[in-house]
């Protein structure tokens, strides 16, 4: 009970945010003193004594590193990038016609023969939300409230308690989704099922009992894929929201089973599965009763141990929408947030499609880009590690594009990360409003990759690399020289060791 009472929303690792502040701001020629001023405005960072100490050291070392001179040289460019911009706000009734919201323009010109096949994020204008009781109640209500706050986006919701995908004789969800999608014409379908799905499924007139058998799992995955297929036929992408932890241990085990199957089925069809099990669990993996979110503390779930209270739903929906923003193009109502965009290209080096997220300033003006390579040990894609809103604010503040490759975080770069990074930089420069990728930065193991890439590509110009910590634990920052010698022309920006 003691652990439960004090458990809170796990904070995103501050070392990740600190890496972004110390690397991107400095490497963007913002100046060490400016970095310190900006950090002073962030309440979470104010409490980090080691970070404040490091910033103080950076201020005194600014001239030695040479950031001040570079800042002055690029002052005029920054003024242009940070010019006033117009932000479009969603009205009560969004118009049917598409709205122009600073769509990135990589610029017209001849086709590059070396360009790789590229897929950018689809613009979302109409979102259909469907599902069982959680969509009828708290989660659905919160989605219906939040989605129209994105510029030019309409939403339609339909939820029905005590239903699911396993029993079409009780509620034929494929038929219902078909009937809703045909007149509404959604770009995106957000679905949530599972609470009533751990039961027998009728296959060719024969009932297949629920269990972790190949027969039942194949039958259930076919039900999930059917929803994705119907959405696709109507021109819509699909997002499945996973099931949460449950108070009943047996019920929780069933939800974990269904989550695995849903993720496998949805992702195999090109959709997005957003897990919520960890969001609804304590740090030790137990059922979470309470939540602290945006200054409020209260119950996360209702008395039945299954459904969400309003506060819990607001918290979960915020996390879900961040994941959706990283795949599809949605312009947040907060004018201080850059637009998160999911891009991918067909890599020759990897022999498959490779994804990355670009945080693009709202102005749409061309600007330099920074490539960020986090420490793979931090596992950014896994909730709650991805500093999504922090990166949005930073990109908008700097007026520069920030790029985070998906596969860099999982070690999928394999034995030849340099070839894949070369392709990634080229794809960014061809398909985003970018003048050039002039910064490649990393932390932990990502710093080794960043430094090697920067050294191998002097044509990137003022590329700087941060050699981050041996360990990513708070207080573990150390300046390290990697192989011991800095390549000619490559200037390091070092984070001083934190006081223990």
How would you explain this protein's 3D organization?
Helices cover 36% and strands 17% of the residues. The protein is an alpha/beta fold and 500 residues long. The chain has two domains: 2-83 and 335-492, 3-Layer(aba) Sandwich (Rossmann fold), CATH 3.40.50; 122-325, 3-Layer(aba) Sandwich (Rossmann fold). A six-stranded mixed β-sheet has the order 1-11-12-14-13-15, sandwiched between helices. A five-stranded parallel β-sheet has the order 3-2-4-7-8, sandwiched between helices. The chain has a two-stranded antiparallel sheet with strand order 5-6. The longest helix is centred in the middle third of the chain and has 20 residues, at 214-233. It starts with a helix and ends in an 8-residue tail after the last strand. Residues 1-13, 26-33, 43-110 and 467-500 have low confidence and may be disordered.
Short description:
With 500 residues, the chain is an alpha/beta fold. It has helices at 2-6, 14-27, 32-40, 43-46, 49-65, 67-73, 75-81, 133-136, 138-146, 173-184, 214-233, 249-268, 310-325, 388-398, 417-431, 445-456; strands at 118-119, 126-131, 154-159, 188-192, 201-203, 206-208, 237-241, 272-274, 290-293, 296-299, 339-347, 352-360, 367-373, 401-405, 434-442, 464-465, 491-492. The protein has 2 domains: 2-83 and 335-492, 3-Layer(aba) Sandwich (Rossmann fold), CATH 3.40.50; 122-325, Rossmann fold, CATH 3.40.50.
């Amino acid at each position: 009970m003691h652990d439960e009472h004090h458990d809170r929303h796990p904070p995103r690792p501050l070392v990740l945010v600190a890496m972004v502040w110390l690397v991107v701001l400095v490497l963007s020629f913002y100046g060490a003193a400016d970095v310190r001023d900006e950090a002073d405005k962030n309440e979470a960072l104010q409490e980090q004594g080691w970070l404040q100490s490091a910033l103080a050291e950076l201020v005194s070392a600014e001239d030695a590193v040479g950031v001040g001179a570079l800042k002055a040289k690029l002052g005029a460019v920054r003024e242009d990038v940070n010019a006033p911009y117009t932000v479009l706000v969603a009205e009560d009734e969004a118009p049917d016609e598409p709205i122009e919201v600073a769509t990135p323009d990589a610029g017209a010109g001849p086709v590059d023969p070396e360009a790789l096949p590229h897929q950018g994020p689809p613009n979302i204008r109409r979102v259909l939300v469907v599902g069982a009781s959680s969509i009828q109640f708290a989660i659905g209500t919160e989605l219906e409230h939040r989605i129209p706050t994105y510029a030019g986006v309409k939403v339609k919701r339909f939820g029905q308690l005590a239903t699911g995908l396993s029993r079409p004789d009780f509620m034929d969800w494929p038929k219902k989704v078909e009937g809703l999608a045909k007149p509404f014409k959604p770009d995106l379908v957000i679905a949530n099922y599972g609470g009533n799905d751990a039961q027998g499924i009728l296959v060719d007139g024969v009932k297949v009992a629920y269990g972790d058998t190949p027969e039942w799992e194949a039958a259930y995955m076919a039900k999930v894929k059917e929803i994705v297929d119907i959405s696709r036929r109507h021109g819509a992408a699909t997002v499945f929201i996973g099931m949460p932890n449950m108070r009943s241990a047996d019920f929780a085990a069933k939800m974990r089973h269904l989550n695995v199957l849903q993720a496998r089925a949805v992702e195999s069809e090109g959709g997005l599965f957003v897990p919520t099990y960890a969001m609804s669990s304590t740090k030790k993996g137990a059922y979470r009763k309470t939540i602290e979110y945006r200054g409020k503390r209260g119950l996360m779930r209702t008395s039945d141990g299954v459904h969400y209270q309003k506060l819990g739903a607001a918290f979960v929906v915020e996390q879900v929408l961040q994941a959706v923003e990283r795949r599809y193009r949605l312009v947040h109502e907060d004018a201080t947030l850059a637009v998160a965009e999911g891009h991918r290209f067909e890599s020759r080096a990897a022999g498959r499609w490779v994804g990355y997220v670009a945080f693009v300033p709202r102005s749409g003006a061309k600007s330099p880009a920074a490539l960020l390579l986090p420490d793979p040990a931090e596992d950014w894609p896994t909730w709650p590690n991805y500093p999504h809103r922090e990166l949005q604010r930073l990109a908008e503040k700097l007026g520069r594009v920030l790029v985070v490759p998906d596969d860099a975080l999982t070690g999928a770069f394999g034995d030849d990360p340099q070839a894949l990074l070369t392709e990634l930089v080229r794809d960014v420069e061809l398909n985003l409003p970018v003048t050039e990728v002039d910064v490649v930065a990393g932390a932990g193991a990502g710093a080794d990759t960043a430094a090697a890439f920067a050294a191998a590509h002097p044509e990137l110009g003022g590329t700087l690399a941060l050699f981050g910590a041996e360990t990513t634990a708070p207080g573990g920052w150390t300046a390290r020289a990697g192989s011991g010698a800095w390549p000619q022309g490559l200037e390091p920006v070092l984070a001083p060791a934190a006081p223990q």
